[in-house]
Amino acid sequence: MSSIKKVVLAYSGGLDTSVILRWLQETYACEVVTFTADIGQGDEIEPARVKAERLGAAGIYIEDLKEEFARDYVYPMFRCNTLYEGTYLLGTSIARPLIAKRLVEIAEETGADAIAHGATGKGNDQVRFELGAYALNPDIKIIAPWREWDLDARDRLVAYADTHGIEVEKNRTGKSQYSMDANLLHISYEGGELEDPWTEPSNSMWRWSVAPELAPDDPQYLELEFAHGDIVAVDGTPTSPAAVMRQLNELGGRHGVGRADIVENRYVGMKSRGCYEAPGGTIILKAHQAMESLTLDREVAHLKDELMPRYASLIYNGYWWSPERIVLQQLIDASQAIVNGSVRLKLYKGNVIVVGRRSDSDSLFDERVATFEDDAGAFDQADATGFIKLNALRLRIAARRGR
Fold this sequence. Notes:
By secondary structure, the protein is of the alpha/beta class. The protein has three domains: about 5-65 and about 90-165, HUPs (Rossmann fold, 3-Layer(aba) Sandwich); about 180-295 and about 340-360, Alpha-Beta Complex (Argininosuccinate synthetase, chain A, domain 2); about 375-400, no CATH class. It has twelve helices and 14 strands. The strands form three sheets. It has a five-stranded parallel sheet with strand order 3-2-1-4-5, sandwiched between helices. A five-stranded antiparallel sheet has the order 10-9-8-13-14, with helices on one face. Helix 3 (about 65-80) crosses helix 7 (about 240-255). The longest helix is centred in the last third of the chain and has 20 residues, at about 300-315. It starts with 5 loop residues before the first strand and ends with a helix.
């Protein structure tokens, strides 16, 4: 690493990455280029620019990637109805491949020798950033300060900042006690009182959603239109992927939708308790499942159900750019050619309720066959006798043998 002259740092402008910026300058005697991705985290973007300028960054990249994030990462993931361990919508996980991609690209554009990130040695993000970077540039050099330095507590970071003239928020009154990560898909909360899995989160923790019991007493209906498995319109108005997510976050949050509290298995081996707030993602998942229920062949749907946990683990563990994820994505995307139509939903006190679905061109629902009334010969019920006997054959043989 002694040959490093320039580093591209994934930079948020917070205490950790501000200290890392100065630490890289001192430890490696190198220039530092900062990269801040705007993927919908809110109002911390411009302050990051100001802090990077004050700390003498050799270059500052701040990029609006919200549409790319929604279109090329979140939407493809939802085509698989993806949940990690049955609950987590992968809001943090799915953002890391995009950030890793831009870090590698900016390093090439600026002639940098390495990239750096602020992920700790205990978490998943270090794995996601680095696997992604190596997949895109096998020769990239990566600096992970949390695995090198001894600044392993907040008071040490603050002391370093004091010594080096780095402005930080020292008065934490009114500040969140949680470690938080936000983007268009979710907000995550870790640390603080959440480190006791028996403790209920304070209602003041949640930022996007009201408590379900405080949500409006009147339900809200909305209609989502799908084309090839992706939402393309809300209540009849064509909308971009990022705009869909913003709108559904607002609607879902107003009705208490999208809160999750889980203990998950991190890739590095430990269990971790986290709370997640994803109103829009919760709505998208429910609506997409309803659209597929009408249009997908039974065996294709069941195959996707079997593959989903593996696909979710690949994203969670940092393998977005792996050959197996890319092959799986091709299969998933091929299945979505006929996932077209509209789903009608009711939002009510934390619930997303499907109340209607239709597809004029691709529905596999045949009322003549499914009806309990006169089917006019569309289905011969006598055929079921042979079907049942054939499927019962092995069971009957086993029963005769007393098994």
